[in-house]
Amino acid sequence: MNIGTSAGIGINPYVNTTHTSKQQKSDTGFTGSVMKCVQAGRQKVMLCQDALMSYASPQTGESVNIYKSPDYSTENPVYLLKGLDRNGKEFVQEVNAHNIDPAYCSYNELMVLNLETGHTSPGDYLRAVAVRDQADIQSYFASKDFLSYINAVMSDHKRMGSWDSYLAYDRWLQSLRSYTTR
After folding, report:
1. Going by C-beta distance under 8 Å and a sequence separation of 6 or more, which residues neighbour residue 61?
2. Pairing of strands 31-39, 43-48
3. What does 9-68 look like in DSSP terms, one character per residue?
4. What is the signed CA dihedral for 9, 12, 17, 21, rounded to 10 degrees?
5. CA neighbor of 28 nearest in space, from 89, 109, 112, 94
6. Which end of the chain, N or C, is less packed with Cβ atoms under 10 Å?
7. CB atoms within 10 A of CB 118
8. pTM for the whole thing?
9. C-beta separation of 95 from 108 below 8 A
10. What is the per-residue pLDDT across 47-103, written as a single tens digit (0 to 9) for each?
């Protein structure tokens, strides 16, 4: 696991970043409090404060905000992903948590599973970031076998004797397997 690059990909993402907050209506019609961050190279990302979860990559410009769909129910766990792709174009994507296979899914879908299984703490988010780094993905939309990468990170923690972290990853892994095999 390459810890030095997990969050900032070798750079400090806050250097050369400005923040503005304002009420904004996007091209796709959703309105909310938006924080735009401008990174060196004038790459913009969009983070919405009303989302269940938001994350962005200053390196690629991708940003994702996850919401429950108005049609959400426990039998139909549909989430809406809204944000900007790497070309700065707005997107809206609907994802049903029951249809996600963590053995081959995107990072966005993994984050939907985290929301659906209650893994929403900062520690849970950092575990997902470490697994994304282990998978060496450059886009939130790229699909990988995240179960294998969770096992790889767990193996690293086992080798280091970091048993608290190992057990936290194991609880997360078992939760994902339990949810997706029902």
Report:
1. 39, 43, 44, 45, 84, 85, 86, 87, 88
2. antiparallel
3. TTS-TTTT-EEEEEEEE-TTS-EEEEEEEEETTTEEEEEETTSSEEEE-TTT--EEEEEE
4. 80
5. 89
6. C
7. 10
8. 0.78
9. yes
10. 888 999 999 988 888 999 999 999 999 999 999 999 999 888 999 999 999 999 999
Smallest CA-to-CA distance from 101 within 92, 88, 89, 110 is with: 110
The C-alpha angle 130, 131, 136, rounded to 5 degrees, equals 95
| DSSP assignment letter at 1 | -
Distance CA 115, CA 9 (A): 25
For residue 124, give Cα distances in angstroms to 46, 91, 97, 130: 22, 25, 18, 10
Calculate the alpha carbon distances from 147 to 42, 45, 134 in Å.
35, 28, 11
Tokens of 145: 């076998």
